Amino acid sequence: MWLIQQQRLRRRQFRRLFHPMPTQRRITLHIGAHKTGTTYIQRTLTLNRTRLPLTFETVPRRHPHLHAITQTTAGCQTREAALAAAADLRLEAEALARRFRRVENLLITHEGLPGPLPGRPQFKGLYPMAQYLLAPIIEGLQSGGAKVSVVLYTRRFKDWQASLYRYRFIKHPERRYNPRRYAERTGLPGSWDDLIARLRAGLGDVPLTVIAYEKDRRTGLLGRGLYQIAGLSTAEIAALRPPPPQNVSRPQTKTDRHFRA
Q: Directed axis angle between helix 130-142 and helix 86-99, to 10°?
């Protein structure tokens, strides 16, 4: 099955060589957040990659340039570090845009783009360096003339914070969850408002769309809102096959009563 998939991908890449160069290019940058279904969206796109139109492409999670970008963002814990990494981020983003220059609608999705996973004492706050990290990435993607837009998924903040706690202590399901204490230790603000305001200020004229995880999931296909923004038609979205279920956090247990507070 894997070999068949690879052969189809190679044929798809070969056909694109003879496809007319796009006169206008759009790049959609999906920046997570963590624990909002990003992994499921990536798995859906990977499973259906050969079914996507030639005018649309998604960057594989392990693509060298994208991997280099997210490795850099993961190590930036201060404003000084983020500013020092700006040149490298811009160069990698430029190279990524050149690699997919024949694609009219390009979707880049990775939850590590705005910074490391929140909810840990060593990385306090809610993506505090996001605006400094995303600015040079977007500049690099725009260098070839592409129009860039940014998409952020959010969840009800109390549920999202509890999900972070579950993930962090996945091997200790018996550990009691205290929402207030956890927020104080990790510097989580209690809402998405500050992050969204910082992103809008830092992105300038680049459009930022915020999608509610719960609302998008109720459509029957998590990721539908993102796919529409990225350029897929209603019929193309309807043709997507869902991946098999996969729980990236631990299964619910009786101790989950602590997460309802």
A: 40
Fold of 25-260: Rossmann fold (3.40.50)
pLDDT digits (tens, 9 = 90+) for 180-216: 999 999 999 999 999 999 999 999 999 999 999 999 9
Q: Are 50 and 12 in contact (CB under 8 A)?
A: yes
Domain ranges of the chain: 25-260
What tokens does 59 get? 């960057």
Give me the helix-helix angle, 179-186 and 157-168, nearest 10°. Answer: 80
Residue 212 to residue 113: CA distance in whole angstroms: 19
Distance CA 158, CA 162 (A): 6
- Rounded (10°) angle between helices 86-99 and 64-74: 160
Residues of the chain above pLDDT 90, percent: 79
